[in-house]
Queue: 4 jobs
Job 1
Amino acid sequence: MTRVPSRRPRRRRGVSIVEVLIGLVMFTIGLLALLSGSVMAVRTMQTSQGFAVASVAAQNTLDSLKALGWAALTGQSGSYTSRGHAISWNVTGANPRKIVVVVVRHTLPTTKADSFVTYVAQ
């Protein structure tokens, strides 16, 4: 009697090195994508925080100048530093008076100047 070879496929035991390498590459790509997204999120949060601080400083300066009254606003100008941001202001015009507040904030890799303008009429 001759024996007929079985047509059943062999059972696999474990995974091949190629499958392990492909899985490792896919995992690394996913991890790098998550890491780059986190870096972008941190950078965006720092930029928005700097803009928020600049906006608050400008609003405080505008409120302080408006509180001086109409007559005291003539020809006012000055500057100060708040939380590392340079703030300067200038009042020009007769009626209405134009108040320009410039806030210089440090962002990576450069600095940005934001101008806030308001008009005060008698």
Note: The CA atoms of residues 98 and 119 lie 5 Å apart.
Job 2
Amino acid sequence: MGIMTGKVLLIGGIGAGKTSLKQLFSQEVLTYRKTQMLEFSSLFIDCPGEYLAIPRYYHVLIDASHQVKEIWALQDSTQACSIYPPNFAKIFGKPVVGIITKIDLPQANIEKSKVFLNYAGIIDPVYQISVLNGEGSSALKFRLQALV
């Protein structure tokens, strides 16, 4: 892949699929494990969902964002509510990409997820992906390759 010129910060609620997305694009075996602290890899900074769930930790996300080219904000399409505060994406001062996850599940609500991301200040681009079956991954992978 060459010399790393940029990384992506993965943010989202607990269980939104941040680590699974990282595993998919890092060609790792998909295994569920709870992220306990910021994890740095060659492409991603993966953060625990608690950092978004607990406002006292927002500063950690802001600090981590200084090390990346863009932020990928994940929204679990099966969730009934948003974890993002209004216009949260505006605090970063760099591109924030919306990613709707778990679109393969029967209870997925993509339209509601778009509303949640819009509420957070993310309009475009918004990608839809299933890590399990790979649906929607090619456009996002292309975006990632353009960053590195």
Note: The chain has one domain: 8-147.
Job 3
Amino acid sequence: MAADPRTRMRFPEPPALDDHAMEDLRFIRETMERSASFTAIPGWGGVMIGATALAAAFVASRQPVTRDWLVTWFVEGLVALAIAGWATHRKARAVSIPLFSGPGKKFAIGLAPPLLAGALLTVVLYRGGFFSILPAMWLLLYGAGVVTGGAFSVKIVPVMGMCFMLVGAVALFGPAAWGNAFMAAGFGGLHVLFGIVIARRYGG
């Protein structure tokens, strides 16, 4: 006897192969973004930042009042930020890495909070007259940001951040008169040194 068609088991239609393929590709892409390193850190851009920082240190050392010294380094910060943005965008395009997704976004999120904290503390310390602490604080917080952001980049980046923190720690307990020299050694010397290493090992 033939089975009643109404009693036959009905199975759901399998999803189209294209849907499966797209889902798999999406999963693979997201996994790679989570596990990949942000390799668009600009080595030659870091060298340029270091060079401008050395020039700023020279100019700042010749300023007669603390306000002018602070303005000199504030202008250098803006110049360095512009160079970093341009060089990072240029390298990211060259190696086809998205800047604000995956590791790039995590790098920025790790770097930004210490820099924001440094900006706010600068205002407070300047108003309170604690000028001698500024170089150590800037070096320590910048180094902390590079360490936390660098956790999503190549291994040498967190090492650079720790070196900045080391210079900042020495500046914190060193003579106040050496503050500008510590700034030159950190923002100038370390950027040039690590920039050259990054450029040679990681493609510019």
Note: The chain has seven helices and no strands.
Job 4
Amino acid sequence: MLDLERRGLLGGIPVADFERNRNAIRREVEELAWNPALQTYTQVLNGDTLDASLLLLGWYGFAEPRQPRMRSTFARIRERLEAAPGLFYRYEESRSAGEGAFGICSAWACDFLARGGGTLEDAERCFEQLLQFANDVGILAEEIDPVSGAPLGNLPQAFSHAGVVSAALAIEERRRGAEALP
């Protein structure tokens, strides 16, 4: 919205208010959502639990995937949320609740790697591992049993496929040599 206002496409936007609030939110996240003992961003302020959606901080432009904090966050997510190669739980509670790995979370990991959180080869390997869980016509479920690979939950699941499309685009941009993705 701020960019649209700066380009003269919107008028009357309180730019200074938006910028002040954005900066305050950033400070709060950097101070209270970063756990120095765990070296990771956390699911909640002053917390110690993880959520795979933290991988979207780079996608949204909050933090570059190649930054040390984001790489460290990805390392903690792999430790705590990776269910099997290419499969990630959404929350730490998912494992104990008997839920499957979420397709979109696995796509977020591939996207994160493609955007600079890892090598192109890491991203491609993650992507290929995820695609192995699609059915015979290429459809992914909402969740995937990390032991058997069986689809769980809704099938097909639009979110899983939206994540796959985003990851595929990020990987292709990386292949073309883009250093920083939009």
Note: The CA atoms of residues 142 and 154 lie 5 Å apart.
